[in-house]
Specification:
InterPro entries: AAA+_ATPase (IPR003593), ABC_ATPase_HisP-typ (IPR030679), ABC_transporter-like_ATP-bd (IPR003439), ABC_transporter-like_CS (IPR017871), MetN_ABC_transporter-like (IPR050086), P-loop_NTPase (IPR027417). The protein is an alpha/beta fold. The protein has nine helices and twelve strands. The strands form three sheets. It has a six-stranded mixed sheet, with helices on both faces. Strands 2-1-4-5 form a four-stranded antiparallel sheet, covered by helices on one side. Strands 6-7 form a two-stranded antiparallel sheet. Helix 3 (108-118) packs across helix 4 (124-137) and helix 3 runs parallel beside helix 5.
């Protein structure tokens, strides 16, 4: 069996005295689409941000392709890796956020090109070809030279997804990417993610779109108060929840 793409072993994260992640264990294989569901404050977004080293974590390990992320342990002493090394590791993952975080003074294509030029050291011409390819893939070929202010929220989020995927990450992280959108724009973004899932992209999604998680995920993880309470096949979990807490959550959610 091939080694896991992602492993979390006893992951712990604290803000001061508040423990947000209380020893999370999870393994993910190449090509899996895993949706993380749970109430607000259950640790879902924090977990994603630890994987991408946007947050430090105080205990446990995260491995991508068997490589320890963020920290080395030498003779039992935990040491943060150099910023250069962390930047290299951060490029193993792509992340799309609730807010689109586009540069307003750059066009859609220029937003996608920026990382390709700065990080991947591509020429402008090479970067433009890749940017156009991915903007086409998310249905925005005709908007390549439009600025964020000229785009709808759904279009801006699709540019942000194109920007992340253009960097060719091993794993895509999506953090509630539809939560800032008007309801009528949600579908266009979910359609892009569905297409990526069908192509075999490895994805970890924090989402409150229960119907989408049910239909698209190869696995669902339910988190509550900093721990994974239940995980498994979405059909099994959503139709026959194994814990009372998940049953309550689904009842209060949009899943019918």
């Amino acid at each position: 069996m091939t080694k896991p793409l992602l492993e979390m072993q006893g992951l712990r994260k604290q803000y001061g005295t508040v423990e947000v992640l209380k020893g999370v264990d999870c393994t993910m294989r190449q090509g899996e689409v895993i949706s993380i569901i749970g109430s607000s404050g259950s640790g879902k977004t924090t977990m994603l941000r630890c994987i991408n080293m946007l947050e430090e974590f105080q205990g446990g390990r995260i491995l991508i392709d068997g490589e320890a992320i963020g920290y080395d342990e030498i003779a039992g002493v935990r040491r943060r890796k150099s910023e250069k090394e962390i930047a290299r590791q951060r490029a193993l993952t792509g992340m799309a956020f609730q807010q689109f975080n586009l540069f307003p003074h750059l066009s859609a294509a220029q937003n996608v090109m920026l990382g390709l030029i700065k990080v991947k050291k591509m020429s402008r011409d090479e970067a433009r070809v890749v940017a156009e390819q991915w903007l086409g893939r998310v249905g925005l070929s005709a908007r390549a030279d439009h600025y964020p202010g000229q785009l709808s929220g759904g279009q801006q989020q699709r540019v942000a997804i194109a920007r992340a995927i253009a960097m060719n990450p091993r794993l895509m992280l999506f953090d509630e990417v539809t939560s800032a959108l008007d309801p009528e724009l949600v579908g266009e973004v979910l359609q892009v993610i569905k297409g990526l899932a069908a192509e075999g992209m490895s994805m970890l999604l924090v989402t409150h779109e229960m119907r989408f998680a049910y239909e698209v995920s190869s696995r669902v993880i339910f988190m509550n108060q900093g721990v994974i309470v239940e995980q498994g096949d979405p059909k099994e979990m959503f139709l026959r929840p194994g814990t009372e807490r998940l049953a309550e959550f689904l009842k209060s959610s949009s899943f019918q």
